[in-house]
User: Fold Leucine-rich repeat (LRR) protein from Amycolatopsis umgeniensis.
Amino acid sequence: MTTRLELSGQGLTSLPDALLSPSLEYLDLYDNRLTSVPDELWSLSGLLVLNLATNRLTSVPPAIGALRRLHTLDLGHNELTALPDELGELSGLTEYLYVSDNRLTEFPVALCSLGRLKYLGCTDNRISTLPEDLSGLAALRELRLYGNGLTELPESLGTLSSLRELHLRKNRLTSLPPSIGELSELRQLDLRENRLTTLPASIARLSKLDKLDLRWNKEFREPSWLADFEAGGCMVLR
Assistant:
């Protein structure tokens, strides 16, 4: 039986370390007022799920790298300006990593070591560029990067061959790399509220794409192939 501790929405400003049983596998501290957590938390080597979202955390210590069994981690809606490199050591992180709505100015390169991760949410931060090499995120199925300041995407985006959803709304993209046409499993591509003027023709190769959202790109000029692509079954929102 999973050992759980659920303390969401309790108005906590501190967490008594006496609550942190070594047998804990599920710890939910969502929606409190925590500015830090006890060091003992990072020694809970059996932890599978950790939810620290919607608190007032300004940092996460390198010791988080010891939580090797963790498969789900939520750090969203805090005040984090950076993440430790040790996040890349969480080899068990397979299901879900959410770091949205913080104050990150850089996409942590260490996250590109999470080769089994399926979902990554890094929205509503202040990230202007991505690492050149994203190929380490080989198992990723859903990538959410909307609400940042991205001006370009690396060619290595095309190596994410398992990706099914790519959400890029509300950035500053003026173009997309041709390699986006290599995302053969892609079903949804959200490009709303950018500065795109056209699309690479390689997108027409995305045979599984069923939704392409292009709304609110003010200077967009529709490429000649897009109507045929839409006729083939993809819903295109203009």
Observations:
- The helical segments are 226-231.
- The mean pLDDT is 97.
